[in-house]
Amino acid sequence: MNSSDSHSTRPKQRFTAKLPIELIERARNAVYWTPGLTLAQLVADSLAQSLDALEAQRGEPFPPRQHELSPGRPIQVKPLSSSPN
Fold this sequence. Notes:
It is built from three helices and no strands. The mean pLDDT is 87. It is extended and about 55 Å long. It has a domain at 17-63. The protein is mainly alpha-helical.
């Protein structure tokens, strides 16, 4: 299935994320030099590919969220340290 075809017919919603400036510039350059490619299409296709890879690693799609994500930075989870008994 061509992922750009599936993106064009689905409802859309604005999605805002802060990204490294270098990554944004690379994306803008790719769109500029690729006739017919839009920034939204590049982002949607790239995100879909990344999610497909994560789900393949997991062995199945992620289940629906149980609640909305909290805005802001993610909570840092510290690895459990093995403490002597």
